[in-house]
Amino acid sequence: MSLRSCKIFVTGASSGIGAHLARALARRGAAVAAGARRAEALADLAAVEPRITPVKLDVTDPGSVRSGVAAAAEALGGLDGLVNNAGIAWGGRALDMAEDDWARVIDTNLSGVFRVAQAAARVMAEDGGGSIVNTASVLGFGTGTGVAAYAASKAAVVHLTRNLALEWARHGVRVNALAPGYIPTEINRGFLEGEAGQAMLKDIPMRRFGRPEDLEAPLELLLGPGGAYITGVTLPVDGGHLCRPL
Length: 246
Ligand code: NDP
Description:
There is one protein chain. The protein is α/β, with parallel strands linked by helices. The chain has a single domain (about 5-235), classed as NAD(P)-binding Rossmann-like Domain (Rossmann fold). Helix content is about 40%, strand content about 15%. It contains 8 helices and 7 strands. Strands 3-2-1-4-5-6-7 form a 7-stranded parallel sheet, sandwiched between helices. Helix 3 (about 60-75) packs parallel to helix 4 and helix 4 runs parallel beside helix 5. The mean pLDDT is about 95. It binds NADPH dihydro-nicotinamide-adenine-dinucleotide phosphate (NDP). NADPH dihydro-nicotinamide-adenine-dinucleotide phosphate binds near residues 13, 14, 59 and 108.
């Protein structure tokens, strides 16, 4: 039940959760292509881990997604897995939200996830199948003040995951998602380390925020052969956060 020798493309790999998971997959013996816009950060990652190949891509640009997925498949000699993780957050009251901010969140977190999944699934379907794991969020199931676009985009990722799983099973492509609870990274560290963020700890039964390493084993299950009969599922990894209404 191992990922050894698997060929896996990880998006959003220039920082935070994606960078951590790219390194963790490489340590488990996978060949990894690491995608994001910041080429320098990707080069730094590849410099310390020779099993990682950097691939520059912008998930909001269809041409960049096509060439990025093709470059990843070429560098790895095919694609067995996709960790479809690139995402952004925008925090602010919905009444004040500008049209451009709404569009940017949806374009990155929902349309970007679809674009990369479609391009990767086309490669996988040609080559006997594969496994896709999207990054959703606990906010895909719950609500929060100031996160309307983000939460809507992640709820859509949960539903997209089910629909793609239904359509692509016949091509041998499984599609699942992880729904992490709050993990301090570039996307939210300022908020989580502040007073309001710390107050949220009381809503997490396990009384701590997540760590990127909490996602490693769940990812391995969904991505690898251990999850061979699992598709269409979104697995919360949240210290019990969803046991309470968000
Ligand atoms: P980071 O900000 O550290 O990472 C986000 C990653 O996405 C970066 O590598 C960034 O790279 C990449 N990215 C953003 N926009 C684009 C784009 N247009 N094209 C390509 N890559 C892009 O945040 P996290 O690691 O926390 O977030 C990773 C994922 O986890 C996101 O989907 C987030 O929504 C999700 N998540 C995070 C939680 C948390 O508490 N941290 C909780 C639940 C879900 P670059 O800027 O170089 O392009």
